[in-house]
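Complex record, two chains
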Amino acid sequence: MLKLGVPSKGRLMDQTFAWFAAHGVTLARSGSDREYAGTVAGAEGVQLVLLSAAEIPRELAAGRIQLGVTGSDLVREKLAGWRSDVVEIAPMGFGHADLVLAVPACWRDCETLDDFAVIARDFRAAHGMRLRIATKYHRLVRAFLSAHEVADYQLVDSQGATEGTVANLTAEAIADITSSGETLRANHLKILPDALIHASQATLFAARAVADQPDLRGFLTRLGV
Amino acid sequence: MIPRTAQHAHGRRILDAFLAAGAVEVAPDILLPAETLLDLYGEDIRARAYVTTDPVRGEVMLRPDFTVPVVQMHMAGGAEPARYCYLGEVFRKQDQGDTRPDHPRDNEYLQAGFELFSRDPDADAELFALFHGILAPLNLDATMGDMDLLLDAVAGLPLSDARRAALAHHIWRPARFERMLDRFSHPAAPRQFAVNGAPWTGQRSRDEMHARIARLQADAHEPVLPTIWRERLHRLFSIAGPAPGALDELSVLAEHMPAIAEAVDRLAARIAAIAARGIDPARVRFDASHGRRTMEYYDGMTFSFISAANPDWPPVASGGRYDALTAVLGQGAGGGQGRAIPAVGGIIRPGLVAALC
């Protein structure tokens, strides 16, 4: 039996159901819409499991589900060495969101990542501490800044309302997911155009350990991916 | 995997050699205060330290390295000259990127180390020869570098103080350094800083921004760095080979870059001192860029011993000179302002030594 993990709530779930329907497989919640189980019509031997999108990477890596739909950002952030655990089967064309680096809009002298690197160095000299970047995407942000050789910063953890940290003086910049940029603008922040850390979208993943098994290959063929 | 007990046995033998060289054994804490110490390491170690919170002590970390706590210990009241040695675990996170390697690096491993606080210019050779002797049976490749050369070369460029300082700051970040050097080698395109209606937010002040804008505007009038200087720097960075030949190349280059002449003389003296201790300099590789790939606190000689048979291993041993670190720690030690002590030190990884035996 293959277990397919799908986000349990809202728009992401609806769009996932629609994507599978367009690929000839009907997913549906069984019973009430409060029950986190579902049915799969149009494919034998596949069981639907409704999960939080943030838990799907871990469940795939642990082998408790064999297929899962979640954001490509979450897989990269939550699974160290993600390519060893999961295989990217198909980007699904929705749930687009960019992980970006944003700074106060009033920083007129900050237009590029190079500006940011210099400002970070000056800030450290002036304030005796490293410039703080609030984020919940520690691994992705660290890897990006390290690849671009930005030093003199520190990450501070922010699990929500990250855009507010700058005004609250708990960070000087933020790295967060945005789709329209509206919340950033409302909080007087601007995106650094050359600091797109990851362009995320909903993606169908398979657990690497079982990615070549006939039943899974068969289901993917059925989906036409 | 070599059993821990066997690794310790190798560590003890290395420690005995350090003790025989006149060192006093010290045992810094495993749980160290995080905030002040972490700032002294480069981003690499900083990101890899295991940090946790203690209800009374605040942020603490598992020891990622011995040098800083040993320097602190010495600054708190050690006499000079001083030789210290230690044996113990260090802890470093190993984030492996997108795909996990078949042989991931250890998160926790033993280091046997030796630190020498001395104003004697022969300290470099003493340290290098000590490590060379201990590691001799293992047939490792010894490579030496010298940050002094590179920092002096940058300090000697015909640039403003601000530009020289910026280059020196990024010497450990090659791509950023190159981009900056490239920018200084061309006329600066004027920049517009469009006024926007955004309200001021965050801890960086308006004054800081205006100061930077003024600096950028002044910078636009800076004379362009003649390309010959970039070529000379590149020539310097690429010098690598057996030490005597590398030294000859450096001597020739010093005629065009007088700023490095003194550092080249010091390097020549160091290589002679190493030869006087019975090491064939032709068997030591000098790589001018070696120090750019090491810890950021090294500011003079750097060295590493590599196992050619195991190219995916980290160095079996590494070390160098770190005078600036003692100056930074001296400021906080209450021992007078900027109390600096010339210092060199290095570590050997007994786990890798055990694997080679």
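Note: Chain B touches chain A at residues 39, 42-44, 46-47, 95-100, 166, 169-170, 173-176, 179, 193-196, 198-204, 208-209, 212-213, 216 (CB under 8 Å).
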